[in-house]
Amino acid sequence: MDSSGEEFAANREAMLDKLAQLESEHAKAIAGGGEKYVERHRKRGKLLARERIELLLDEDSPFLELSPLAAWGTDYQVGGSVVTGVGTVEGVECLIVANDPTVKGGSTNPAGLKKGLRAAEIAAENRLPTINLVESGGADLPTQKEIFIPGGRTFRNLTNSSAARIPTVALVFGSSTAGGAYLPGMSDYVVMVAERAKVFLGGPPLVKMATGEESDDESLGGAEMHARTSGLADYLAADEQDAIRLGRSIVKRLNWHKLGPSPKPDYDEPMYDAEDLLGIVPGDLRVPFDPREVIARIVDGSDFDEFKPLYGTSLVTGWANLHGYPVGILANAQGILFSEESQKATQFIQLANQNDTPLIFLHNTTGYMVGKEYEQAGIIKHGAMMINAVSNSRVPHLSVLMGASYGAGHYGMCGRAYGPRFLYAWPSAKSAVMGPQQLAGVLSIVARASAEARGQVYDEDGDKAMRAMVEQQIEAESLPMFLSGMLYDDGIIDPRDTRTVLGLSLSAIHNGPIKGAEGYGVFRM
After folding, report:
1. Distance CA 150, CA 114 (A)
2. pLDDT, tens digit, for every residue of 166-212?
3. What sign does the dihedral 126-49-181-151 (CA atoms) show?
4. Half-sphere exposure of 49 (CA within 13 A, CB side)
5. What is the pLDDT of residues 135-157, one digit of tens each?
6. Tell me: the pLDDT tens digits for 236-245?
């Protein structure tokens, strides 16, 4: 790769522009409810959600934040009023969920609920203890129709986690009311902050309306009452810092052990500079790029053993290590998946399952090839083989959308619906049923044929306007921030951070056993 050429410089500049836009959107999530509500929260002597997380984590350890752009493009605050991520507490990787009380008192909106459920899914799949930092007024009542019924999974997930011997801890800093009271009620360990935590099914106004009984917050659901009388609180903390200390102490005593194999203790950094990743992806995703240039900058020692390099050359497959963990990699080279690539991928995925090796999918595909020649050669059968292999593979999968991820190629490369343990996107990524121009063109052809069948003159000006509108809509809906807002990825990452993010994800994955599939469904040969 020529990092001094004009094309590289243009690609790099375009990527830096996208990263600047991404940073401004992340800033909205970090800002929480805004300066007014942050100041009000501080005047109450309380820590912000991210400050609580920082104190909870081991000093100078990383925090892999998940879904930071949840709710982007909606009427809700970017971030969904909750912070989620994977961090290390007393040497144990934990899934951490923190309500942001500066956003409508930490109440749960539909985007925040979806984000929380995705976090619970990650905890369950990767055997991660969960720590909830609770301060929430419960459901955002105006949107209750979108929260009440699916929201019950939150509590079901807690009890399922406990049954699977994956610990759950609740540190209650403020309100945890109504349905939210079941969050500490269904956690294995509960810490409440004295004179701050309030946990009850119905607050004083609701109790008054329902029973006529007069009561106050403390006697009804205060931390002291729950520690001394109801027994709901296992630990009574003097203040927020003390609650975090107690939370760390709980994790310290979990006697937690990873079940997956340990990484190799000694490994080399890549031989090539991660800065180069900024200039690899062209601004026009129809222009192909060599994914080996990406692989060389993320795997240990840039050491990659390619599998079947002369067959199905538009898909690169091979073996490597990443932060000491063995991985298999599938990466799109020329965008289109043909029969040969599909068969190659199927065999490679089976091999990874035979030797219990996690798989990394690097996306840049426009989908499976179409046309009479390819249909007659069995592209549907061969594409189905690849999708079958991905669907029934049992080793952990990680996906990174670098460029295009269109059509059934998104499925074959383990898109969101195929259950990757983590899925990330670069700012350059796009994902849709097909490219904007292709989709608009298909609609135009169908409309033109329909008009001809009715014997009508086709409206060329209307066709031009329709195509422009459709292309604009599909382009907007295929951009990574739109998709991230809908929780179709776990975060948009700086390409330079790819190695680190994948390393943290692999470490989290190895909390559970790594074992391949012992059987597959019927492959249509």
Report:
1. 9
2. 999 999 999 998 778 889 999 999 999 999 999 988 777 666 777 77
3. negative
4. 31
5. 998 877 788 888 889 998 999 99
6. 999 999 999 9
The residues near 509 (Cβ < 8 Å, ≥ 6 apart) are: 126, 260, 358, 396, 398, 421, 422
**């007014």: which residue's tokens?**
36
- The amino acid occupying position 385 is M
List, for residues 248-298, the tens digit of each pLDDT value.
999 999 999 999 999 999 999 999 999 999 999 998 888 889 999 999 999
CA 407 to chain centre: 20
Structure tokens at 250: 């709980």
Neighbours of 310 (CB within 10 A): 6
Contacts with 288 (C-beta within 8 Å, 6 or more apart), sequence order: 333, 334, 335, 364
pLDDT average, residue stretch 113-140 = 94
Domains, the chain: 31-252 (3.90.226.10), 274-434+479-509 (3.90.226.10), 436-477 (no CATH)
Q: Retrieve residue 180's tokens.
A: 């939210």
CA distance 322 to 268: 9
How many degrees, rounded to 5, is the angle at CA 186 between CA 180 and CA 192? Answer: 70
Whose structure tokens read 């597959």?
A: 520
Residue 147, phi then psi, degrees to nearest 5? -115, -45
In terms of Cα–Cα distance, which of 68, 138, 152, 66 is closest to 109?
Answer: 138
Three-state DSSP class for 108? strand
In whole angstroms, what is the distance from residue 51 CA to residue 38 CA? 12
At residue 401, the 3 state secondary structure works out as: strand
